[in-house]
Design goal:
Layout (H helix, E strand, L loop, with lengths): L1 E5 L4 E5 L3 E2 L4 H13 L5 E4 L5 E2 L1 H16 L4 E4 L3 H9 L7 E3 L2 H20 L2
Parallel strand pairs: 2-4, 3-5, 4-6, 6-7
Antiparallel strand pairs: 1-2
Length: 124
């Protein structure tokens, strides 16, 4: 249901299903927690295959966002389709989440935020 690829400074979790719902959302939450326990703080959630998302799916996305933030990392949702985007907007989560159209843009955002965190830490 999920493909995980570990990159240099982040992980990409690709949901390999057209639905993110109560059947697979608990597994996704576990993936976020497991990655955090393995010291992976930056995560890109690739939803490019997902055409439907329910409240369980949104909850899983919020868990990923919280886990990354608690690890002083960056969480990015990428590749969302129209129906999922509308749900995120209706839920007003678009103001909370980092959303990019592509994985490349998600990676660039993560690298930029890593540089900012390194800079902020060097000034302390």
């Amino acid at each position: 249901m999920f493909n995980i690829s570990l990159e240099e400074k982040y992980a990409v979790i690709k949901v390999v299903s057209d639905k993110l719902n109560s059947l697979n959302a608990p597994d996704l939450k576990n993936k976020f927690v497991t990655l955090a326990s393995e010291d992976v703080k930056n995560v890109v959630l690739d939803l490019s295959d997902v055409k439907f998302c329910d409240s369980s799916g949104l909850s899983a996305i919020l868990v990923g966002n919280r886990v990354s933030k608690n690890s002083n990392g960056t969480f990015v949702v990428s590749g969302i389709k129209d129906m999922v985007e509308k749900l995120i907007q209706i839920s007003q989560l678009d103001s909370i989440l980092n959303i990019t159209p592509t994985i490349t843009e998600a990676r660039d955002l993560i690298f930029m935020e890593e540089v900012e965190r390194d800079f902020d830490n060097s000034e302390k």
